[in-house]
Design brief:
Number of strands: 10
Structural class: alpha+beta
Number of helices: 8
Number of domains: 3
Largest sheet: 4 strands, antiparallel
Length: 249
């Protein structure tokens, strides 16, 4: 599995819910609040609608969602949040991008830098890692929902760049950021559910990791993931499925 497998991220959200439900809801609240700055109506704000679907998957309470939207639109007072991107390298040269949402850039930057340092990595300057990734829309559709030819025709007509069927139980649809909304809407119009749908950072090349190196990477990954300001971690690792199963990711 490479570092941009989005359905694996969905499983981590669900699997981690019992252990850290409050943390998951807190992160989603920040994402909702930030997205709602562009409008609180999910019918006209696709980014908000996508995050609300994620919130629904983990049974986030409706009143918590409403408060987050109200904070984003200004209907309820709150601390100002901003999105920040941190770049660095982990052990064994794995390139890492860290998406965070914070009300204090200095605090969050210091925390992320410390995490990198403690786990064999180095936080870099802006632009030091981002060039190794492409921004792409990624959508995962379960194979038992629709046939390969039918899905391919639908998404390509809507503007998708590619579709792969070698991802286990899922098809992986790739789009440009600009075409993501149209492809997602085409699936919604046909009532085809997605297991994961978001614009993400896809690595141009990957770094193969054996079991020992994978363990070292995930120590850093988990430390970043446990930071309250971190929303997502993108990396260009490539780990065989059998090793990933051993690590119980």
């Amino acid at each position: 599995m490479s570092g941009h497998s989005k359905w694996a991220k969905v499983k981590r959200y669900k699997g981690a819910l019992d252990q850290k439900r409050g943390q998951v809801f807190s992160r989603l609240s920040k994402e909702i609040q930030l997205a709602a700055k562009s409008g609180g109506d999910p019918d006209t704000n696709l980014k908000l609608r996508t995050i609300l679907l994620k919130a629904k998957e983990v049974s986030m309470p409706a009143d918590t969602i409403k408060r987050a939207i109200d904070k984003g639109t200004g209907a309820e007072a709150s601390a100002a949040l901003e999105a920040v991107l941190y770049e660095g390298y982990g052990p064994n040269g794995v390139a890492i991008l860290v998406d965070a949402v914070t009300d204090n850039r200095n605090r969050t930057a210091a925390d992320i830098r410390s995490i990198f340092s403690k786990h064999g990595g180095n936080m870099g300057e802006s632009g030091s890692v981002a060039f190794l990734f492409d921004k792409k829309g990624l959508l995962a559709v379960k194979k038992d929902v629709i046939g390969e030819d039918d899905l391919m025709g639908l998404v390509l007509d809507a503007g998708a760049e590619d579709m792969r069927s070698d991802k286990g139980d899922y098809y992986e649809v790739t789009t440009s950021p600009e075409a993501f909304d149209a492809v997602k809407k085409a699936l919604e119009d046909k009532k085809i559910p997605t297991e994961s749908a978001e614009v993400s950072m896809v690595p141009k090349t990957t770094v193969p990791l054996d079991e020992k190196k994978a363990e070292a990477y995930f120590r850093l990954h988990d430390a970043l993931d446990n930071n309250d300001d971190v929303i997502d971690v993108h990396a260009n690792f490539d780990i065989p499925d059998e090793i990933l199963a051993k690590l119980d990711r």
